[in-house]
Structures are given as structure tokens and as C-alpha cells.
Amino acid sequence: MKKWVGVFLAAGLVMATGVGASEGTADIFSLRGRRERCFLASVLMPSGNYKVIMSCRDMIFPPEQFVYGYAVWINPVEGGDPIKLGSLGVGKGEYGTKKAFSSVYISEDRPIVREGTRKIFPPALMQGEMKPLNIWASDVIAEPTATPGPTVVPTLGEGERPADQEQAQSVRERLGAWVTRILGVLFGVGLLVVLAAVIVMSVGGRKRYPPGV
Q: Is the pTM of this model over 0.85?
């Protein structure tokens, strides 16, 4: 019984390790100092297969004379030979695999060379390590954002006016009072000027003429 429990635990550990390594992303960079780079994303589907998609930038096509494309390879978690996912095409790719993998590399799309029992795989031109999805390891829980409540507009009773209208009315009343005062002062000054003019004219009109004239 203990033997079977150990076997199941070991199998579960391998499966968990495989899922953690293969379900994630990889940033793939050039091993030749070039600007070429690729992004890979892998998700474990209900069918048990890993769905893999890739997108690349600044890659040169064709890579070499008489070589018309690139190939994508994965290194299985369990070890062993690399597994070819497929051709990369024009910098885009979509693949599927049952094998859990820990890293990925890109080579020229050449066949595997066999020398007796030895296999010679095309050398890697670009390489990247699988990284788990950060969201699975995150403890952050998104808090719901507060929904703003409705804006309450106060209702006015009969005969009531808004505060801004009352303030405007008060300003108008004060302005009217000042205008009235200014007009009163100007009217008083005008009366004084007219009265002074009349007095001057009356005094000037009383000239003393010499006798006999």
C-alpha cells in the first residue's frame, strides 16, 4: 500500500511540475546578438494538450541560402531529445503538444541528421526558458470598485429660490442702491451748478450806468 501511495505522489509531483513549467510564457532571444526576438504562450487545454502560440519580430527570411524557414523545438521536462513543434512560417506559429516542456528554441528548418545511433539536431539560433503565469502565484485579490451613488438634487418648496439666484438678487439690489446714491449726488451737484450760474448772471446784469446816459 505504501508503495502505491509513493508512486501516486511521485506521479502527481511530476504532473504538477510539468504543468507549472509548460503553462506560461517564454521570451525568446537571439543567440547571435541580433535584434530578432519571439514571444511564446502556452496553456493546458481540457484535452490534455498544450496549446502553444508564437509571435516574432525582426526575423530574416530566409535564414540562409537554400533554407527557407525556421523550426520551433521544445525541451521536455522529463528529459530526452528535443521535440519539434513545427515550422515558424513568417514569424507566426500555432502548435499543440502533449509533452510538458521547460524551454524552447528556434533553429533553421533542417532535417535531423543520423549518424548510427546518434542524432544531430539543427543548432539553436534563439532560445528562451518557460516562466509560469504570475497571476497563478499572486495573492492579490481585486477589490470591487465603489459604484458612485446617484446625485441628490434638493427640491425647492413653493416660493423658495436656489441659493445662487438669491445671491445674484442680493448683488443686484446692492448695485441698484449704489447707482441710486450716485445719481442723487450728481443731481445735487447739478442743481448747485445751475444755482451758481443764475447768481453770477444776475449780479453781472446789474451794471451801473453813468448819469445822463
A: no
